[in-house]
Q: What sequence folds into this?
């Protein structure tokens, strides 16, 4: 499908200056989709993206900042991620409360679709990753809130739960997708996570889906749209 024919709205990217967020922006621009990034550091965003995107400056802790950023956007893709065990960059502040705040303000602004980068093993409280200030549990709470809010009012969501994230170009690996949080280990390119969330903007079969994904084998792909076919209804 031609992306411009399939999706014409403006997309807000939260967490755009992070490694995965940068790929989300790149893949949106690849398909000619207008992008607005939400960043607390305007200079950093400008240095990364120049004038190829709109930049909304603010903090994920501020509902007012978020409300201004989402105004006029048709979709949101969140690549937010915590980087410290406490303070404003902690899992509680970012992975849970920040995402929940973003979901609520997006819904109020009339955003129709919300894409979220979550994590494999998010339902497993005993997973070693949860030793990082309960990050998986915080992501799970945010997921639950997103599903509740964006399952009504004509809204939709796509939640991608990647394995360990690594660098690399998109469309270079065959992927393994699953539901029910049954995968325990594996890796995936950040660029493919971004690609999955971007194509979900215009794929009906991607709406209201939550799934895990990891690399399966080195095998060049023409598109990642096919992987939504294998998800249960």
A:
């Amino acid at each position: 499908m031609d992306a411009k024919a399939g999706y014409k709205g403006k997309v807000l990217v939260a967490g755009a200056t992070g490694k995965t967020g940068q790929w989300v922006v790149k893949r949106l621009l690849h398909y000619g989709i207008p992008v607005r990034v939400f960043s607390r550091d305007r200079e950093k965003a400008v240095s990364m993206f120049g004038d190829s995107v709109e930049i909304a400056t603010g903090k994920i802790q501020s509902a007012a900042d978020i409300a201004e950023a989402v105004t006029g956007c048709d979709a949101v893709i969140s690549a937010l991620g915590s980087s410290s065990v406490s303070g404003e960059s902690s899992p509680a502040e970012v992975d849970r409360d920040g995402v929940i705040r973003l979901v609520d303000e997006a819904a109020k602004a009339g955003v129709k679709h919300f894409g979220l980068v979550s994590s494999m093993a998010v339902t497993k409280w005993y997973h070693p990753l949860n030793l990082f200030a309960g990050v998986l549990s915080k992501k799970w709470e945010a997921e639950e809130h997103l599903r509740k809010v964006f399952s009504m009012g004509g809204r939709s969501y796509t939640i991608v739960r990647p394995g360990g994230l690594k660098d690399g170009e998109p469309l270079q690996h065959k992927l393994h997708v699953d539901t029910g949080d049954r995968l325990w280990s594996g890796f995936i390119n950040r660029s493919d996570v971004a690609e999955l969330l971007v194509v979900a903007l215009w794929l009906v079969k991607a709406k209201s889906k939550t799934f895990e994904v990891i690399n399966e084998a080195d095998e060049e792909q023409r598109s990642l749209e096919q992987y939504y076919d294998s998800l249960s209804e």
